[in-house]
Amino acid sequence: MDIKPLDTEQIGLKTLEKHLMRSKSEVSLKIGLPKEISFDERRVSLTPGGVSILKANGHEIFIEKGAGEDANFPDREYADAGAEIAYSPEDVFKKSDLILKIAPLTKDEFELLQPGQALISALHMGSQTEDYLKALTEKSITGIGYEFIRGEDKEFPIVRMMHEITGSMSVQIAAHYLESMSGGQGIMLGGISGVPPATVVILGAGITGEYAARTALGYGAQVFVMDTDLTALRRLENALDRRIITAVANHQYLSTALKFADIIIGAAMAEGERSPCWVTDEMVAGMKAGSVIVDTVIDQGGCVATSRPTTHSNPVYSEHDVIHHCVPNIPANVPRTATYALNNVLVPYILAIGNAGGVKECLWENVALRNGTYSYKKHITKKTLAKMFDMPYREIEMLIASQI
């Protein structure tokens, strides 16, 4: 295949399309893509290429006018791919049995939900409420969360995609705010000959931490990675040819590391739960003036005590003379890349739902989507969520087996 340099973002989609084009699915799904109305959210769940694959498999796609514009996907491209352009969110919700979103539902969108619909979106546990979950169960919504979708290989594919983007971008962001015009110390991340580089301390050796470390090393920074999991630290050390320094994230090491750090990348998280808070207010107060904290897990509650959610429009604030960047949806600032990444993961799952004969049938045989389900037939199906809000829950396997 002859690929031009400017066509490289399409390679993954063309490969995906080659594998997924097939005969008609068992059922024709009616799939709705409302325009995201959450503040600063610019992504969309499917690309026009993804729509064309679903259309070729017999599914109907309803996309709200302008839903892809912020990611540079005009309505014309969706229409050419076979989607029906809807002129209001009411129209999208009314016509669809499966809603695909990026952000959790807003209060206005809850009013549009139809009883018995299925919803695939992020859940953002760190900012979730009991009322949100109760509203889903009252309308008997099958809720599948990006944060929970996990395959038989124990990987979280959507989380991984977004964490790769977040990790790489977090270092770019931090490097910008180290500059004096942005209120930082006025230092380069990588340094130059005769001038030492900045010190980057990464909290968490997961996917976000790994990609943050790779990017920081690429800049030439000195990189420390801290975690409570020795196995994760060992894996990352080996993956990066021991070019990083690792340490266990206990109080002593954290206190020492934060005193000389120029940048802190907060990436400590527990899958499916709120993030552990490793950095205390006192530790932040002991940091150098003009240093930068990028808390990438703020959507899960944050891992720094002084973190509070910010937005792309107003991304930073200063506390103890330390710049804090705590935007919960960092990938939304590269919406085109993020949309391609999300599309490549979502399309096979949607085809699996159609091939199985519907959402309920697919949950029985698809481990990843079954793991991703947190709300089903008026029941919460995730123990962690139920525990957070003192709500009853039922195992999804039991609900499916009992034909509820």
TrEMBL record:
Organism: Gracilimonas sediminicola
Residues of the Alanine dehydrogenase/pyridine nucleotide transhydrogenase N-terminal domain: 32-166
Cellular component GO terms held in the UniProt record: plasma membrane
Entry EC number(s): 1.4.1.1
Record's protein name: alanine dehydrogenase
Keyword flag Oxidoreductase: yes
Signal peptide annotation: none
Record-stated family: Belongs to the AlaDH/PNT family.
Gene3D superfamilies tied to this protein: NAD(P)-binding Rossmann-like Domain (3.40.50.720)
Any one Gene Ontology BP term: L-alanine catabolic process
Xref: PANTHER family: ALANINE DEHYDROGENASE (PTHR42795)
GO terms of molecular function: alanine dehydrogenase activity
Swiss-Prot/TrEMBL keywords: Oxidoreductase
Residue ranges constituting the Alanine dehydrogenase/pyridine nucleotide transhydrogenase NAD(H)-binding domain according to the UniProt record: 178-326
Entries under Pfam families matching the protein: AlaDh_PNT_C, AlaDh_PNT_N
Enzyme class at the top of the EC tree: oxidoreductase
